[in-house]
Amino acid sequence: MSLLPLNPVSALLLTPLVAAAVLALVQDYRLSARVNMAASAIALLFAVVLLRGHPPVTRFFIIDDLNIIFILLNTLIGLTTSIFSASYIGHELESGRLTPGYLRFYHATFQLMMFGMNLALTANNIGLMWVAIELATLTTVMMVGIYRTHEAIEAAWKYFILGSVGIALALFGTILVYLAAVSVLGEGLGSMAWSNLLQHATALDPALLNVALIFLLLGYGTKVGLVPMHAWLPDAHAEGPTPVSAVLSGLLLNVALYALLRFKMLIEASPGAIAFGPLLILLGLVSLLFAAFMLYRRRDIKRLFAYSSIEHMGIIAFAFGMGGPLGNFAGLLQMVMHSLTKSAIFFTVGHVAQVKGTQRIDEIRGLTTSHPVLGWTLVAGVVAIAGLPPFGIFTSEFLLITSTFARAPVLAVIAVIGLLVAFGALLFQMNRLAFGEPTGSNAAVRASYVPIFVHLALVLAAGLYLPNVMVGWFQNVAVLLK
């Protein structure tokens, strides 16, 4: 049997892999940017094709209602980020911050990263998924340090070291799950396939699963950016190119979250295993509260929204920890809305930092006056990410809080306190950035507004109306997640 049978899944994986090999040889920046966008568009097309019907499950690959959400989101934001990169990275080339050699490396690594994430999301093998997430991590480490400044290299090493510790813990957890399955399914690939593991979850050794749970939660929780395993995230966002920040917040955190959800489904199906949900609730609330207070003290605009990502991953972890039809539905919707909104914010912030020549919040004022389009899109993005209506994040947070009040009022109050603290911090920082007397450069900016407008329009549309098809789809997944 071929490892990659000819179908949309293999096409989805081969597209970025072939593009990475081609881009490593292309020296002309304009051509490489077009190839990068074309490859991302083709990958999105194949992801859409998967909606027409799920290909048969194989030993290595699986497509179901859960991972197709992540795949579509991954390829969509991959495309919009490649469009944003075309102008953003072009400016970095003209300003001398990046050389043509580094730009060739950047585009090739971008597609290799997309391959790693798509492979992780489609893998039916727990070992293959681990390898794919490690590949995606290593490529983003290289992209974080691409500026070769002292700060960028330090951030890349910090990311590499903490990420390596996390992925090593995840490997131990993966091995323990395999050992729990061997006694039931026998040695070999069958004991590593999600489809087999879920069918025989009730027969797996709960003692081994309990130990695996801790390693998996700490390991993949590091990749998700949950407190206290979050220390790599603010530095990686602040020092790397802004497209990498958008991908980290909008995509890579979700891939690690996907791994946690898969293992949660498996472990909670075992009658004697420790409940996964309460641990997610604890880490989610700690992340939410910690990040919410930290938002007040940020001095760098990209670090500010990095902590906002930690806050929202905490909300999402809390939602999936609460579980149930409404909790899981709210978690899925929050994840999608956060990815779209946060990447739009980073697109805007990237252009703001370029035109102002700084990322320091104290040196950026009056954006709505000096650069009205950038200023008002930033305002819209912050209003959306803060959870105000009529944007989609308001819908997901409203569902989460109301459903939690009905089941655990104390937890709901704690979550509301965290949301209100974060809301105040974001509005305080937005007011400083967007309004008042303009400071810094008033030069025109060559910005990619289309990705920003597309993302914000989708988030607004979701806040006004959720199509019945999408609601039914998310409800089905919410039931699967239990």
In total, the number of strands is: 0
How widely separated are the two ends?
A: 34 Å
Radius of gyration: 21 Å
Classification by helices and strands: mainly alpha
Q: What share of the residues lie within helices?
A: over 70%
Number of helices: 19
Low-confidence stretches: none
Outline, from the CA principal axes? globular
Most strands sheet: none
Order of helices and strands: HHHHHHHHHHHHHHHHHHH
* Mean pLDDT across residues: 90
Strand % is: under 5%
What is the compact description of this entry?
This protein has 482 residues and is mostly helical.
Write the layout of secondary structure elements.
Layout: H1 8-23, H2 29-49, H3 65-95, H4 100-122, H5 126-144, H6 150-185, H7 194-199, H8 206-224, H9 232-239, H10 242-268, H11 276-294, H12 301-322, H13 324-356, H14 367-370, H15 372-385, H16 392-407, H17 409-434, H18 449-464, H19 468-481
What does this structure look like?
- By secondary structure, the chain is mainly α.
- It has a domain at 275-482.
- The chain is 77% helix and 0% strand.
- The chain has helices spanning 8-23, 29-49, 65-95, 100-122, 126-144, 150-185, 194-199, 206-224, 232-239, 242-268, 276-294, 301-322, 324-356, 367-370, 372-385, 392-407, 409-434, 449-464, 468-481.
- The longest helix is centred in the middle third of the chain and has 36 residues, at 150-185.
- It is globular and about 65 Å long.
- It starts with 7 loop residues before the first helix and ends with a helix.
